[in-house]
Amino acid sequence: MSATLIRTPARDQARLPDAPFHTWTGADGTDWAFFHRQDGRILIRFAELADFVVDPDGAQAVCTPAPGCDEGTLDHLFDNQVLPLMLSAQGEMVFHGSAVATEAGAIAFLGQTGRGKSTLAASFATAGMGFLCDDRMVLRRRGADLMVMPAAPSVRLWEDSANRLFATPQDLAPPVSYTDKRRIRAGRDFPHCNQARPLTAAFFLGDGHVKRVRTERLGGILTATSWMANIFLLDTGDKAAIRAKFYQVTAILTRIPAMKLEFPRDHDRLAETRAAILTAAAQAREWT
After folding, report:
1. How many CA atoms lie within 13 A of 197 on its CB side?
2. CA-to-CA distance for 182 and 155, rounded, in angstroms?
3. Which residues of the chain fall short of a pLDDT of 70?
4. Disulfide-capable partner of 117 in 109, 128, 145, 262 (CB 3.0 to 4.6 Å)?
């Protein structure tokens, strides 16, 4: 599958006549991406940064940056926000998730922004289990398996997490203007797995308001709604697209054990959290 990006000259963002039909909200509760329908296509506005107008089949997007938006930010918006939506529109299974490669296969972490997906992926990588992807997980069928496809070899972390996870300075990608997160490139002590791995367990992250690590098996409709809540979808009002994504999710339900994960947001307890996750994943594989 391919997705074409066309860039046009920068210009001020014009006021749009209609309210957005969908928004993305950041960890701080602020809306930061706004979805509008425009002449049969979807306009995604990142306020004061750029507008992307995407064809409904996900084949092409036209990017118009706002004045002053730098190239690194534009590339990041496309690669991490718009491209997953385009791939989803083309039929790919794309989720808001991070994944790591273990000896027994890939483990995925899914959840809302700020739930700790990237921190967990980075923590596993510093323990020698390479990360596959950060906050954009593509699944593809390969025989009886669902494979996690490797993505860019970098993870975005808040400064406190980066400082606690790494004893020495790391290779940083160019900064992105709309976030204070640091994008850390893979390296010798921070491995990236560049080969697809079969997904063996999925953990849906809670809000972290707990004193100890807890895992709970999900089943039935709760599993389906958890997967659907974390799927990339270009037009959230397109009933046919929603139905197609739901059919994709039903194929996951019988193959991949799913659990809710609650863990304390304490960097000193990440080793304990990793151990609990590996234990729960091993037990979960016996369910299938």
Report:
1. 26
2. 8
3. 1, 169, 288
4. 109
Cα 241-250-54 angle, rounded to 5 deg: 25
Six token digits for residue 284? 């979960």
Residue that has been written with the tokens 């016996």 in this structure: 286
Q: Each residue of 216-237: b (16+ CB within 10 Å) or e?
A: eebeeeebbebbeebbbbbbee
- Residue listed under structure tokens 């709604």: 225
Helix axis angle for 117-126 and 270-284, nearest 10°, is 90
- What pLDDT does 169 receive? 63
Q: Using one digit for the tens of pLDDT, what is the confidence trace for 82-117?
A: 999 999 999 999 999 999 999 999 999 999 888 899
**Dist CA 96 CA 57 (whole Å):** 20
Beta strand 154-157 pairing with 182-185: antiparallel
State how far the alpha carbon of 201 is from the alpha carbons of 57, 75, 128, 264, 286, in Å: 30, 31, 19, 20, 11
Give the distance between the most distant pair of CA atoms in the chain. 56
> Reduced to 3 states, what is the DSSP secondary structure of residue 71?
helix
Percent of the chain as helix, strand, coil, to the nearest 5: 25, 30, 40
273, burial (CB in 10 Å: exposed 0-12, middle 13-18, buried 19+):
buried
